[in-house]
């Protein structure tokens, strides 16, 4: 992929520009399901930085919703709706008068979904059906589903449920007809979002605070990775790009999880009062359904994929024979490509690149990043 870490922070690396994005959402009413989760909360924060009319959050986490209401107590555009996405009445109510829907609610943890597959199906598949029907009934303009690279050739319940979500959105878009061509349904797919709840970086930090050990499932494990804010910015742009039935995939750097643990041990160990040599890394074995590597698309999808500097776009299988299909994406700089991005075969982030990545806002706690910056300055002055 040869994707540089610096590319991730480029807000205007592809059209539409930041100005165009802001114009797109101007005076819009937007709903975010799972809006108090890691991605959802960041999405809400970024949307409220724009000139939107209203941002509605639909979530079943009462405590987190209360905290969000306190955070935005002076923000009249923020509206909280407590409810479950599997309850179609709740989604119908929340989506009334809405222009755009970001569907970020999900059960996303692989071990939890393996232990509770019926709950995963209910939330990640039946919940999607509720979202689709409520969006169509309320004549929502566009709906974007936040999927995962685990939907590619899935080996676990979570990945399989995300794949079904993508396919349901493709089907909904195909059947969405009307005087204005109906509601547009599209998806976006990204990898591990560092700093989000349940991701490896917060887990490793907690283990380091206790002096270890750091639990590594397999030394060969690789992952695509990006920061929370970067992922959210790209989701916001995907809504603008979406033509219908398409799946946008953000191109991300790849790293060895073992390399990540070593950087964290070297940098955070001394901050927490431990010499790096004192901290053990323990191999615990892969969890049920867990892969050693991830892919951004399948071999089958490679026959209908477009590629640009920052994006891949999987076209819906039913539309690939349309003669003008590629013309719709020309302004994005997307062209036909036949390849599969695999975290195992892509160039890996170096030690310094991983360290720079950890310093991106939101990846590590602010106070920890401040301590690291202070330590790096001291080392630089000593040199």
UniProtKB/TrEMBL annotation:
Any matching Pfam family: Polysacc_synt_2
Polysaccharide biosynthesis protein CapD-like domain sequence ranges: 30-311
Protein origin, superkingdom: Bacteria
Matches recorded under InterPro entries: NAD(P)-bd_dom_sf, Polysac_CapD-like, Polysaccharide_Synthase-Rel
Family: Belongs to the polysaccharide synthase family.
Protein name from the UniProt record: Polysaccharide biosynthesis protein
Lineage: Bacteria, Pseudomonadati, Pseudomonadota, Alphaproteobacteria, Hyphomicrobiales
């Amino acid at each position: 992929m040869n994707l540089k870490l610096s590319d991730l922070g480029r807000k205007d690396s592809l059209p539409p520009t930041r100005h165009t994005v802001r114009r797109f959402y101007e005076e819009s009413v937007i709903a975010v399901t799972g809006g108090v989760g890691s991605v959802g909360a960041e999405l809400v924060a970024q949307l409220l930085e724009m000139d939107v009319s209203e941002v509605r959050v639909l979530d079943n986490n009462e405590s987190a919703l209360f905290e969000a209401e306190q955070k935005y107590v002076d923000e009249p555009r923020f509206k909280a709706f407590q409810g479950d996405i599997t309850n179609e009445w709740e989604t119908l109510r929340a989506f009334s008068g809405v222009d755009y829907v970001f569907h970020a609610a999900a059960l996303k943890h692989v071990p939890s979904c393996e232990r509770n597959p019926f709950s995963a199906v209910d939330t990640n598949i039946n919940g999607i059906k509720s979202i689709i029907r409520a969006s169509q009934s309320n004549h929502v303009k566009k709906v974007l589903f936040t999927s995962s690279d685990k939907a590619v050739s899935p080996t676990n319940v979570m990945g399989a449920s995300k794949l079904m979500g993508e396919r349901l959105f493709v089907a909904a878009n195909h059947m969405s007809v009307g005087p204005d061509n109906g509601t547009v349904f599209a998806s976006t797919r990204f990898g591990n979002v560092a700093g989000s709840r349940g991701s490896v970086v917060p887990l490793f930090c907690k283990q380091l605070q206790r002096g270890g050990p750091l639990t590594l499932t397999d030394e060969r494990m690789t992952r695509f990775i990006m920061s929370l804010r970067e992922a959210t910015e790209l989701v916001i742009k995907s809504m603008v790009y979406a033509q219908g039935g398409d799946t946008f995939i953000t191109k991300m750097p790849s790293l060895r999880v073992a390399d990540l643990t070593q950087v964290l041990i070297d940098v955070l160990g001394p901050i927490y009062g431990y010499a790096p040599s004192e901290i053990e890394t323990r191999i615990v074995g892969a969890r049920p359904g867990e892969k050693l590597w991830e892919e951004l698309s399948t071999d089958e999808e490679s026959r209908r994929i477009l590629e640009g500097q920052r994006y891949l776009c999987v076209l819906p299988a039913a539309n690939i024979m349309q003669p003008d299909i590629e013309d719709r994406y020309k302004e994005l700089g997307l062209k036909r490509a036949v390849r599969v991005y695999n975290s195992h075969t892509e160039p890996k982030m170096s030690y310094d690149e991983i360290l720079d990545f950890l310093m991106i806002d939101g990846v590590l706690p602010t106070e920890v990043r401040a301590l690291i910056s202070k330590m790096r300055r001291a080392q630089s002055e000593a040199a």
